Every structure is written in structure tokens, then in C-alpha cells.
Amino acid sequence: MINTPDASLYRGYADLAARQELNKDYEIVAEFRPSSRVAVIAPHGGAIERGTSRIARALAGENFSLFMLEGIRRTDNYAALHLSSRYFDEPNCLKVVSECPIVVAVHGCKGTDEKVLLGGRDDALKNQLAAAIRSVGVAAETIGHAFPAVDTDNICNRGSTGKGVQLEFTAALRGAGTLARVESAIRSELLKANAAAQP
Length: 199
Known about the structure:
The protein is of the alpha/beta class and 199 residues long. It has one domain (7-196): Aminopeptidase, CATH 3.40.630.100. The protein is built from seven helices and seven strands; from the N terminus they run αββαβααββαββαα. The protein has helices at residues 13-19, 52-60, 77-81, 91-98, 123-135, 171-174, 179-196, and strands spanning 26-31, 38-46, 65-71, 102-109, 115-119, 139-141, 165-170. A seven-stranded mixed sheet has the order 1-3-2-4-7-5-6, with helices on both faces. Helix 2 crosses helix 7 (179-196).
């Protein structure tokens, strides 16, 4: 088993799986809830982008489908396991998102200001979530940042509608007491969206 931290070279989950060992270097959580129209995913969970698994679980609760790939290595989790979102094709994740018209991907980014950077192709939901985040006193940016996530291959855009939302939580926000308010505001909007999307 080659275990070299070179995730920047990966062009799909098969590359990651060939170099890292499931349940030793990373774990996969896939919880599909048939009644859910929302999928919450953390493709860089655990120690890859710290705090994103906890946020994803808070957003999903017991209502929404959930997927997480979590780094559990002692070191080099980001370097070894950060499979780019445009190449993220882990089969369990693809199954979870393919069943849902609403997909929200949780990520972590650098930043000393408490804010969320929103991307993805679902402009309506993106703007709704941004408004909800701002309503609890936290900055939310939908344009002009480094994470537009509009590539159709981005995992957030691979749900049944071909569009989704990517949420980048800054390091400052992931460690702040205000995070719970942000999670609650986002979850409230997702509950509304889930109800509206029921057949």
C-alpha cells in the first residue's frame, strides 16, 4: 500500500483509495434517509478540514441524508486525503446526492474573520442561506471570493437537479461561539426547502 501524501495529484476517488487505507487513514459515513430531499455532505471531514464533520452533522440532524469522508491519519490529513471537489466521485457520496434535489457541501477555509463563503450553481438557495447567515450577525459572501464552485463536476452540483450550494466556513468561524447560531439559521432554511421539495 503506497501511503504518500499527494492528494493534489488525485483525479478521482480510485486514486485516493489506491494510496490510502479505508478505516486506517480515513473513514466514510453514509446515511441515506429516503424521505429527505436534502443531502448534506462533508467531503473533507475529520482532520482534513477540521470542524466540517461536526457542522455537517448539525445541519443534517435526523432529517437529512448525510455523507462524510473523514481523515483519521495521525498527520498529513489534508495533504494525503484532500480530493478536489471537482474530482470527488466516491460511490456512496454519488448515491446519496443523486437521490436529492438539494445538496449542501460543507467545507473549511482559512480566514481570521468569521464568515461563510457561498458557492455552487443553486443561486436561489445560495442567496436564501446567505440571508439567513447575515440575519444572525455573521458575514456571508456569494460573489467575488475564491470558491465559486460553479463547475458542473463539483460534487455539490451533482445532485438530481445539477445544482447545489457549497459553504466554506472560515477557520475563525469554525472556532467561534457564534457558529451554533449560523448552523441553526442554515438548518432552518434547509427544513423549509426540504418541505417545499416533497413530491
